[in-house]
Amino acid sequence: xxxxxxxxxxxxxxxxxxxxxxxxxxxxxxxxxxxxxxxxxxxxxxxxxxxxxxxxxxxxxxxxxxxxxxxxxxxxxxxxxxxxxxxxxxxxxxxxxxxxxxxxxxxxxxxxxxxxxxxxxxxxxxxxxxxxxxxxxxxxxxxxxxxxxxxxxxxxxxxxxxxxxxxxxxxxxxxxxxxxxxxxxxxxxxxxxxxxxxxxxxxxxxxxxxxxxxxxxxxxxxxxxxxxxxxxxxxxxxxxxxxxxxxxxxxxxxxxxxxxxxxxxxxxxxxxxxxxxxxxxxxxxxxxxxxxxxxxxxxxxxxxxxxxxxxxxxxxxxxxxxxxxxxxxxxxxxx
Length: 335
Description:
Number of helices: 5
Low-confidence stretches: 1-15, 123-129
Structural class: mainly beta
Oligomer: single chain
Mean pLDDT: 89
Largest sheet: 7 strands, antiparallel
Shape: globular
Radius of gyration: 19 Å
Number of strands: 19
Number of domains: 1
Strand content: 15-25%
């Protein structure tokens, strides 16, 4: 379990108040149907997990559970799509190589992908006092700013962090910038979404204004939602482990500088961002939020790692993203 969440829930007397599950890779391609619907290719590369109805458009009225035939996620009723930018290594000679992903603890056999969390609550009497409302059909949101390049630009976002893993079990400390030294077990990128919804809009033009953070405190500490966004929803979090081990030789780092770049050309780390399009079947997510649940959730259907890994979609952009590249796809200015 992620360290900060584990500590918070332990202090509040609950360690089963969140849903944690792995999702294998669906596709890595230059599409972003939330920010750039219909655009092929989109400006930068993303790694996508979830249901195989993912496509270039993803209209708000899309019926993701019925349009999908499989999902890369452990819980087979989750046909949502989740995606983030992609990490690249820049070598001393100026060429780039995509950094692979590895499975998190408990999901080591997954085909890359991410670990997803839906936090339910933190109090022992949460079923009576503090139920969270599951996202609705058509709901979508975005966290982060792909254009941000300084800490000041991302202060409005909470808990977009990195962990320089000393070993697979390390979960702290967390930083807001990309690590500036070799990380023995890779780099974990963490994205935590806001937890208060306005109760009206399934989306907004910037994919953020319908969501807000607690007025005080945190979701884990039962911080109250602001009056403008009164509906408490699950705290959604992504964990991605980037396997930087093959790139840890400082002699290959140009001038000893941090050599990793996000796919939109950001080497600071402040441009990290994540997209979410809700697609759970029927009331499956609400059932899970109404019951104490962790990895083994009796209210949900679970599929095997083999089934997760076998789900994929065709890369419709069809551009070179692997091996040594002269430039990051969509970012020739960095070459």
